[in-house]
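Recall the central idea of this unit: under ordinary conditions, the amino acid sequence of a chain determines the structure it adopts. In this exercise we apply that idea directly, starting from the sequence alone.
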Amino acid sequence: MGTVEGAPRIEPSADVDARAVIGAGTAVWHLAQVREDAVVGADCVIGRGAYVGPGVRIGDRVKLQNHALVYEPAVVEDGVFVGPAAVLTNDRYPRAVTPDGRPKGQDDWRADGVTLRRGCSIGGRAVLVAGVTVGRWALVAAGAVVHRDVPDFALVAGVPARRIGWVGRGGEPLREAGDGHWQCPRTGERYREADGVLRPL
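Accordingly, the structure predicted from this sequence is:
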């Protein structure tokens, strides 16, 4: 198994392919699987039973909770949280067989990965449909089904997921402060909303 500098912690029951790269300080827990050519950054936690597909790219300080499924060719940037049993899918039009009844093979479909931008969080059992991007510091509620892109700092929930508010870098819903301004109750950070886009001040 390749490593970045230092020795990651790999539990004996985990299945980490020899062609995967695991960063320093990363822990891969019981029964997790990291497939060939995946790259996992430093100081990550890959929880029990989690799956990281071939060629998936995971940044530093990422937490994949137990049984999270990250299918290729997903890209997960630094500081992302993926809750328990969340699924990042990769096939927009899934079928087990071709129209003539043959089992579908690698050449019969195109994998379309999910992208999770820096600092975003995905709630437990959420499902992200192939090809969507979740913006920086956004929050996807538990059980949501995300079928379209999520803006930076957006709080989305439901089936299908819809924006129900904004969140700050602290993770808590922002409070309206008037005149298009929002404030984080935890950090005091202020943000401004214009044309459906939220930016820190």
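DSSP finds no helices and 27 strands in the chain.
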